[in-house]
């Protein structure tokens, strides 16, 4: 198995660690979180602050990295802060996920159990496709977005950078959700949502 470094040790990290275990492709060699002030080793795994990531990589140049943090803004800041080449970030896909051969998935993206990513979908880097989400054909999901559990993105949907689609929301065909916008859980999106907005309801309405 290939070595992997997990950045973050909160709730989302627990799920990512389970995914890594189930995939049998990687072995966790370090878990980095800023709650640690210095590097320590326990049960063969290194624990330390995020700033120590380059030291860990110096020990094992073959190691991959995943940023296992659910907050889109924090995940983006860390990706920019560590300044590591894209090819060093692992793309993690749960064995139960169904991925079209024509789909394109970026580095650092995590696809959770029972997800479907259909034909010609394009998923950016450091995206979370959470449990049971459906990404239909010809969708585009930008970097740092989070598609929550049981979301359905129907065909030709565009989700821009950093957007968060809440659990069980549905986005109808051809709709665009703007950068860093938030769609509330259970919403049905039937109109485009501009950048940096919040929208909730069935059908959605803008909150600001």
Which strand-content bin applies to the residues? 25-35%
Domain module tally: 2
Output the helix-strand order: EHEEEHEHEEEEEEEEEEEEEEEEEEE
Global outline? globular
Number of strands: 24
Can you summarize the main beta sheet? Answer: 8 strands, mixed
pLDDT averaged over residues: 96
CATH class of the largest domain: Mainly Beta
Distance between the termini: 48 Å
Instruction: Name the strands of the widest sheet in spatial order.
Output: 6-9-12-15-18-21-23-24
Structural class: alpha/beta
| CATH topology annotation of the largest domain | UDP N-Acetylglucosamine Acyltransferase, domain 1
Examine the secondary-structure arrangement and name the CATH architecture of the largest domain: 3 Solenoid
What would you give as the CATH superfamily of the largest domain?
Hexapeptide repeat proteins
Low-confidence stretches: none
What fraction, in percent, of the residue positions are helical? 10-25%
**How many whole angstroms does the radius of gyration measure?**
17 Å
Please give the count of helices: 3
Task: Sum this structure up briefly.
It holds the Pfam family PglD_N. The protein is of the alpha/beta class and 208 residues long. The chain has helices at residues 11-23, 53-59, 72-82; strands at residues 2-7, 26-32, 40-42, 45-48, 64-67, 92-93, 98-99, 104-105, 110-111, 116-117, 122-123, 128-129, 134-135, 140-141, 146-147, 152-153, 158-159, 164-165, 170-171, 176-177, 182-183, 188-189, 198-200, 205-206.
């Amino acid at each position: 198995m290939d070595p992997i470094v997990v950045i973050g040790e909160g709730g989302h990290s627990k799920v990512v660690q389970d995914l890594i275990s189930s995939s049998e492709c990687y072995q966790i060699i370090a878990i980095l979180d800023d709650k640690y002030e210095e590097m320590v080793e326990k049960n063969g795994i290194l624990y330390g602050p995020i700033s120590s990531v380059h030291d860990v990589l110096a020990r094992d140049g073959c190691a991959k990295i995943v940023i296992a943090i659910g907050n889109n803004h924090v995940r983006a800041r860390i990706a920019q802060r560590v300044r590591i080449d894209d090819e060093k970030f692992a793309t993690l896909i749960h064995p139960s996920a169904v991925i079209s051969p024509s789909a394109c998935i970026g580095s650092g993206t995590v696809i959770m159990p029972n997800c479907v990513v259909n034909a010609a979908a394009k998923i950016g880097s450091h995206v979370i496709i959470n449990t049971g989400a459906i990404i239909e054909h010809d969708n585009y999901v930008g970097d740092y977005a989070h598609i929550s559990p049981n979301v359905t993105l129907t065909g030709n949907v565009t989700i821009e950078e950093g957007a968060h689609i809440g659990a069980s929301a549905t986005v109808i065909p051809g709709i665009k959700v703007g950068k860093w916008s938030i769609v509330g859980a259970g919403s049905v999106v039937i109109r485009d949502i501009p950048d940096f907005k919040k929208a909730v309801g069935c059908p959605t309405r803008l909150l600001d």
